[in-house]
TrEMBL record:
<keyword id="KW-0238">DNA-binding</keyword>
<keyword id="KW-0597">Phosphoprotein</keyword>
<keyword id="KW-0804">Transcription</keyword>
<keyword id="KW-0902">Two-component regulatory system</keyword>
<dbReference type="GO" id="GO:0000160">
    <property type="term" value="P:phosphorelay signal transduction system"/>
</dbReference>
<dbReference type="InterPro" id="IPR011006">
    <property type="entry name" value="CheY-like_superfamily"/>
</dbReference>
<dbReference type="InterPro" id="IPR036388">
    <property type="entry name" value="WH-like_DNA-bd_sf"/>
</dbReference>
<dbReference type="Pfam" id="PF00072">
    <property type="entry name" value="Response_reg"/>
</dbReference>
<dbReference type="Pfam" id="PF00196">
    <property type="entry name" value="GerE"/>
</dbReference>
<feature type="domain" description="HTH luxR-type">
    <location>
        <begin position="136"/>
        <end position="201"/>
    </location>
</feature>
<keyword id="KW-0805">Transcription regulation</keyword>
<feature type="modified residue" description="4-aspartylphosphate">
    <location>
        <position position="55"/>
    </location>
</feature>
<dbReference type="InterPro" id="IPR000792">
    <property type="entry name" value="Tscrpt_reg_LuxR_C"/>
</dbReference>
<protein>
    <submittedName>
        <fullName>LuxR family two component transcriptional regulator</fullName>
    </submittedName>
</protein>
<feature type="domain" description="Response regulatory">
    <location>
        <begin position="6"/>
        <end position="120"/>
    </location>
</feature>
<dbReference type="InterPro" id="IPR001789">
    <property type="entry name" value="Sig_transdc_resp-reg_receiver"/>
</dbReference>
<dbReference type="GO" id="GO:0006355">
    <property type="term" value="P:regulation of DNA-templated transcription"/>
</dbReference>
Length: 203
């Protein structure tokens, strides 16, 4: 197993760490566990490469600050954040700071595994980012004015009810536009939509 297939799990929740260790280990990843950001940061300089998987909400040093310190250190380690629904705006900010992706809890195992594989592949330069962003921009141009408004609110982390209030339309209408946006942009999740929007400079 290459160091590049290593996942550094940083989470203060013992049960979550053990659950992730089992899932990742049984899926072919090498795993190292840390019970908080301070422990990880203390060891970071001597650690092999890989991907960091961390919760956004932790005591002492949260996921956002961990991301900032990893970026400031010069270590080119991709970071995937786990987040509760209410933390989506924070996760969007994290993407702008350089996070690879964020996964909303409760998450499907395959969604998490896919995000980690993508983050690792991208860090190894195996993703054709330029082609992907060009295609994203082309799809963005196909959105109607109202769909673009809903898109902008989605990538800002707003919930359907908030979008409905801002745009003065019903939540049900927002759901219709949201579905149209996801279909036209060919995004399987809001996190994927946000990641592409951030990389394209439209979020």
């Amino acid at each position: 197993m290459l160091d590049d297939d290593l996942i550094h799990v940083v989470d203060d929740d013992d049960a979550m760490r053990e659950s992730l260790a089992f899932l990742l280990g049984s899926s072919g990843f090498s795993v190292r566990l840390y019970d908080g950001a301070p422990v990880f940061l203390q060891k970071m300089a001597g650690l092999p490469s890989g991907c960091i998987l961390t919760d956004i909400r932790m005591p002492e040093i949260d996921g956002m600050e961990l991301l900032r310190r990893v970026r400031a250190s010069g270590r080119n380690l991709p970071v995937v954040l786990m987040t509760g629904h209410g933390d989506v705006p924070l996760a969007v900010e994290a993407m702008k700071l350089g996070a690879s992706d964020f996964i909303e809890k409760p998450f499907d195992d395959e969604v998490l595994l896919g995000a980690l594989r993508t983050a690792l592949a991208r860090s190894r330069g195996e993703q054709r980012a330029g082609d992907t962003l060009a295609e994203f921009t082309r799809r963005l141009a196909t959105l109607s004015q109202r769909e673009r408004q809903v898109f902008d609110r989605l990538v800002a982390g707003d919930a359907n009810k908030v979008i409905a209030r801002i745009l003065d339309i019903s939540p049900r209408t927002v759901e219709v536009y949201r579905a149209n946006v996801m279909t036209k942009m060919q995004a399987s999740s809001v996190s994927e939509l946000v990641r592409l929007a951030v990389h394209a400079g439209v979020a």
